[in-house]
Amino acid sequence: MIQGSLRVYPDAKQFTFTSNHYGADTGFIALYYWSPDHITQIQAHYESFALPFIIDQWDEIPITAYHPYGKSLDSMPSSEHLRCGYKQRYACVNVHLYSVDEHGQDNIPDLSQRPNRAYVAPDLTALTETTGTVIVHSYYRYHE
Q1: 68: closest CA among 98, 31, 35?
Q2: What is the pTM assigned to this prediction?
């Protein structure tokens, strides 16, 4: 199972998740974590093993991608688009970062509203912290 291979930021606490059928034999999952650390510290941690962060074109927040088993990501469309594709089941993990300090608790992006996503929205009200950083790991998997 991929969750054991996720590179979750040290001491980050999961506060919600969502998963659903995407299409054919593919499912999608997004795991939402919170850390009290500043977004720049978390970004530096992920960039030590993942692709450099860019600003996501849909969410306008930092996004990166990495292979959960340490392999290289050779099938990313371009350096301007780091979203993992549905054909990369278990082979690509996206990480979005959202600064609660800068943008507030009420504006956490709901990734279920993005194009080509077919899953139930997460319970973003589960986050009770008013500072820190939200870290979202998302990936495609085989639908059971």
Answers
A1: 31
A2: 0.86
